[in-house]
From TrEMBL:
Residues passing through the membrane, by range: 7-26, 38-56
Species whose genome carries this gene: Nostocoides australiense Ben110
Keyword entries, A-Z: Membrane, Transmembrane, Transmembrane helix
Top-rank taxon: Bacteria
Keyword Transmembrane: yes
Protein name from the UniProt record: Integral membrane protein
Length: 61
């Protein structure tokens, strides 16, 4: 995979993770709290963080 594409996708995944965590926090602070949607957004955000981290790792040879 092209290294520039890999970096672009990793940055996209990190931004995706940040948006998921922010949306989870906003849903938890709403009245009444949207706990189910907050958990869903947090899970999607964590998937984004993990995907970005996996894309940024250096290969082990």
């Amino acid at each position: 995979m092209n290294s520039n594409l890999k970096v672009f996708l990793a940055i996209f995944c990190f931004i995706w993770g940040i948006v998921g965590v922010v949306l989870a926090a906003v849903n938890l602070q709403a009245e009444p709290a949207g706990t189910t949607s907050a958990i869903a957004f947090a899970a999607v955000g964590m998937v984004g963080f993990v995907a970005g981290w996996l894309l940024m790792r250096r290969p082990r040879y």
